[in-house]
Design goal:
7 helices, mainly alpha
Length: 150
């Protein structure tokens, strides 16, 4: 199994996928290989992929989680095992849920920002004012800021 995960990592890096994608795909591949056990995987003869994805759906995984797992395992089959995963008959798709995000009011946001100081306050102000994600905000450079635009 370790050899297969090493090959997976090599293929992901060869295709210049992001580090986060590499971590995610490796995690799903590892879970899938543990799910299958030590036997040889032959997608044309067995239904291990469908069983694995149905198991995710039955354990209340979200639709995006199931889809990410599917993409990771298809990548594993295609580029590591060098075989097509076959058809996914009897696949139960996880149900998409409508999630309404919790949003702070302006007063609540000001209250949070006013309790911060220093670099943390600046980061939160940037995130609130521009809609940046944490990772985007932490990677900002001076060149990324247009001071003439204020």
């Amino acid at each position: 199994m370790q050899n297969q995960l090493t090959q997976l990592t090599t293929e992901i890096r060869r295709r210049n996928y992001s580090y986060r994608t590499e971590q995610s795909y490796a995690g799903w591949a590892k879970r899938y290989l543990y799910f299958c056990g030590s036997g040889n995987i032959n997608p044309k003869e067995d239904t291990s992929l469908t069983s694995f994805l149905n198991n995710l759906a039955n354990n209340n995984a979200s639709a995006s989680t199931q889809n990410q797992a599917l993409c990771a395992i298809v990548f594993l089959f295609k580029y590591v095992f060098k075989i097509k995963p076959g058809t996914l008959k009897n696949l139960k798709h996880a149900k998409r849920t409508t999630h309404i995000p919790t949003v702070l009011s302006q007063e609540e946001a000001r209250s949070v920002i006013n309790r911060l100081s220093g670099a943390k306050k600046l980061i939160v102000q940037l995130m609130y004012g521009s809609g940046l994600r944490i990772s985007e905000c932490l990677r900002l450079r001076i060149l990324d800021i247009d001071f003439s635009y204020k």
